Amino acid sequence: MSVQTQTTRLNGRRLTVARLTCLGMLASATSIFMVSLPTRYDTLVNTFQNLTPAEEEVLLRLPQIVDAHVILGVEMTVTAAFLAVASIILWQRSDDWLALHVAAALAGFVVWVIPALQSLAETPSPWQLPARLAQALGMSSTVAFLYVFPDGRFVPSWTRALMLPLGLSTLAWLLAPNSMFDLSNPFRLSLPSFVYLMGWWASGLAAQSYRYARVATPVQRQQMLAILAAAVVGIALYVVLCICQLVLAMFQDALWAADLLDLLGVPLFLLTILAIPIAFAIAIFRFRLWDIELLVNRALVYGALTAIVAGLYPTTLGFFQRLFVAVTGDHSEAAVVVSTLLMASLLTPLKTWLQSVVDSYMRQSVDHVAALQAFARHMQDVVDVLDVEAITREALEQAVSALHATGGAVYLRRDRHFQPTYVSGEWSQIEGIANWLESNGFRYGWMVLGPPRDGIEYTAQQQQMFADTVALVARVLGVADRLRVSSQPQSSPRSLA
Known about the structure:
- The protein is α+β, with helices and mostly antiparallel strands.
- The protein contains 17 helices and four strands.
- The chain folds into two domains: 12-292, Up-down Bundle (Rhopdopsin 7-helix transmembrane proteins); 368-487, GAF domain (Beta-Lactamase, 2-Layer Sandwich).
- 69% of the residues lie in helices and 6% in strands.
- The radius of gyration is 27 Å and the shape is elongated.
């Protein structure tokens, strides 16, 4: 059996190029978004000032909080959340090309769907082409992410063949504005463009579903589940909103339907896709996606704090301006002062609360010994399972993750020789801890972990827990061997081939 390895680590010149590309993508996305805010605000104000009587009637039935400040606050909050998670990934795993790709895809996706960049891309200015380029790269990198996440391999194999048409369609987007390939405004697409976009999303979700069902390991399934669920919910809501717009356009003016989608449906969609960066945070901290270190605790706290303040400030400013207009009949600079003082007074309590939430969550997620103990209990329950390969593979992955090892390997007897059957992580054949897979006096092989990532030696408790886990795996091998021998009396128990 061949050793199953997959590394996404880079070094040398390729690492430098990948880092600069990802950093450039994040910096460009942030800069273009900041530049687009005044244009977006003017567009929203103009839309509210030119509402038709039918549109005003619809908005009057809703709570009086839907205005330009609130919508802009929602867009800023969502963008800040995506960019914060992307920055954390870039900061902590800048030597992993897949992590860099995910960071760039998060930044690119959010600038594609945020209406602020759509306003900039549709307005003649020096920023129009950079905005369109950022949107096109954001869409294509997101689709490519669905083909290779979480291990960097194209699964199924046909996804590799789709990369060429994906690249060509991105080029057509830039060279042929207003064509079917132009997806600059995903909320006002023609029917052919909508079907074309759904084809790409369908291919990505099909690839992830196939990987989840057929290829992914148990640990990878845990990492994929929340992200895949968030993506499905977001795409489903997007489809519903677009269909609603098409239906409304049949009975009302098309511009009326588009304006209502922009003012009501798009903010709802953006709040929904907040689940995507949250899902990545769960995969990173709960299921140790890419083994990102717990030093990102502070970055997570301040990133969330920035996102909350970015959303609350324009909302409170709009509220107090409306309040002063209702009371005095005119705008007042006091609204800015009151909003600023309120935000300043909330900073410390918000930071304290976020820190306590993150600390509590991460204390639960880093209880490595408890995780390994839970797996040991699980193995005790299924000790009579015959799938030797699956058991040894899962045991190794759980041990590497729980004990934070750099990597590990399982060696089993094949034709009277011990051969590596599975490798996890960065296995450099440097042993940190190893135990024989021995049952009833016969050695089927051994399991070995590399040194801990933090450079500190394994504690006695960790060594004993690893030994107990390996002993349970050996019992599974022994049971499987005895049952195989009983069904085939002529075979020898001296090999697991």
